[in-house]
From TrEMBL:
Superkingdom assignment: Bacteria
Swiss-Prot/TrEMBL keywords: Methyltransferase, Transferase
GO BP term (any one): methylation
CDD domains cross-referenced by the UniProt entry: AdoMet_MTases (cd02440)
Organism expressing this protein natively: Streptomyces rubiginosohelvolus
Annotated ranges, domain Methyltransferase type: 52-145
InterPro entries, per database record: Methyltransf_11, SAM-dependent_MTases_sf, Thiol_S-MT
First-tier enzyme category under EC: transferase
Protein name: Class I SAM-dependent methyltransferase
E.C. designation(s): 2.1.1.-
GO MF terms, alphabetically ordered: methyltransferase activity
Length: 227
């Protein structure tokens, strides 16, 4: 693997309190909330070299199929990155956990067959730049697998999401923005949307601003005009 310097600080993100909460919450959601099954669906069929942006505590690593030859997993938050390193040691495919931010991926262009964005696009500081970087490092025809939460299709919850984003929600939850529209952003970045489906997490009970999710695939066009 060849990394390249993009002149970002080693720890571009630092949310140690949220990191501890997120690690516990995400592990519980995988077991009790069925999120592990969504991770399995997200990664099914991937092969070759894969870059995972915002790997968190590494819960995806156990679900990569054997056809994946290498995963380069970037995580900017130090506490989560340390947990991801431990998860990488237990993975059945080679996983290299490195510091780095989505807006400046420290890797060469067109170096990967697939990219994974899993519950991370809500937190990046510059979403268009982050998606442009993901597109840059994918080979033509390469897949972006995404599992993200975002803007609700219903007006009432969407209004609540926008209100949450203007108040304390981003400060309390590691920079998370619940009213972003990941599908629209992925299309605006020049990806071709493939199949996707909308989810609600948790599936029952009261909805949170972060409940509406979407899981799917997009592709980098073989040419800039998509031909």
């Amino acid at each position: 693997m060849q990394l390249r310097s993009r002149k970002l600080p080693r720890d571009a993100v630092h949310h140690p309190v949220f990191a501890r909460f997120y690690a516990r919450f995400s592990e519980a959601a995988d077991v009790k909330g069925g999120v592990a099954a969504y991770r399995e669906e997200l990664l099914s069929g991937l092969s070759g070299r894969v870059i995972e942006v915002g790997a968190g505590n590494g819960l995806n690593f156990a679900h990569y199929p054997g056809a994946v030859s290498e995963v380069v997993a970037l995580e900017p938050e130090r506490s989560l990155r340390q947990l991801a390193v431990r998860a990488a040691l237990r993975a059945e495919v080679p996983v290299d956990v490195v510091p780095g931010a989505a807006e400046a991926l420290p890797v060469k262009s067109e170096a990967f067959d697939g990219a994974v964005a899993s519950l991370v696009l809500c937190t990046v500081r510059d979403l268009p730049r982050a998606l442009a970087e993901i597109k840059r490092v994918l080979r033509p025809g390469g897949e972006l697998r995404f599992f993200e939460h975002g803007l609700a299709p219903g007006r009432a919850l969407a209004t609540a999401q926008r209100a949450a984003d203007r108040t304390l929600w981003p400060l309390l939850f590691g920079g998370c923005h619940t009213a972003r529209d990941p599908l629209a952003a992925i299309e605006a970045a020049g990806f071709e949307l493939g199949t996707y489906r909308r989810l609600r997490i948790p599936e029952s009970g009261p909805q949170m601003p972060s409940s509406p999710c979407v899981l799917g695939v997009a592709r980098k066009p073989f040419t800039e005009n998509g031909g």
